Amino acid sequence: MSAQIRLVEVTDANRDAVTAVRVHPAQEQFVASVEKSFKDALENPEANPWFRAAYDGDEPVGFVMLSWDVTPQPGIVGPYFLWRLLVGAGHQGRGYGSAILNEVVALLRAAGATELLTSCVPGEGSPEPFYRGFGFVPTGETDEDGEVILRLELASRP
């Protein structure tokens, strides 16, 4: 299946449906919830959080949040940092994660960005294999929480 998604602004009208999107319980140690993402965004305005729900038709199937065009500083990786990416448990394995990232890459290129950074906790069940399969490579650095930092050169994507 070639996933068709669209990134939609989160509003009062769709917030509850978007917040209800959850990963598999075994993945919760690696991926924070949408609700936690909203809280983190409110608590860290200096990270310039940008977030969208990922929809397939009228159904939210995922969520993405970035730090958008920030000056890197202690605790803030940037200028473009994939802070959260999640696909609902019942929607995984259908290409939605890659489709969401493809949309993000297109938006970043349009904004003049050349790379996207992210981080992940290493270990069994980590999203690291997904990110590496998409084209992210380890930078050799870790963040203050011990997460591995990965880089995607946007020119490497079709």
Overview of the structural elements:
The chain is an alpha+beta fold. The protein has a single domain, classed as Aminopeptidase (3-Layer(aba) Sandwich). It is 23% helix and 28% strand. It contains four helices and seven strands, in the order βααβββαβαββ. It has a seven-stranded mixed β-sheet. It is globular, with a radius of gyration of 15 Å. The mean pLDDT is 91.
Overall mean pLDDT score?
91
Run of helices and strands: EHHEEEHEHEE
- Cα-atom radius of gyration: 15 Å
Whole-number tally of structural domains: 1
Give the proportion of residues in helices: 10-25%
State the end-to-end distance.
Answer: 18 Å
Summarize the topology.
Blueprint: E1 6-8, H1 15-19, H2 34-43, E2 49-56, E3 59-67, E4 81-87, H3 96-110, E5 115-120, H4 128-134, E6 137-142, E7 148-153
Short description:
With about 160 residues, the chain is an alpha+beta fold. Helix content is about 25%, strand content about 30%. It has a single domain, classed as 3-Layer(aba) Sandwich (Aminopeptidase).
List keywords for this structure.
single chain, 158 residues, alpha+beta, Aminopeptidase, 7-stranded mixed beta sheet, 23% helix, transferase, acyltransferase, Acyl_CoA_acyltransferase, N-acetyltransferase, Sper_AcTfrase_N
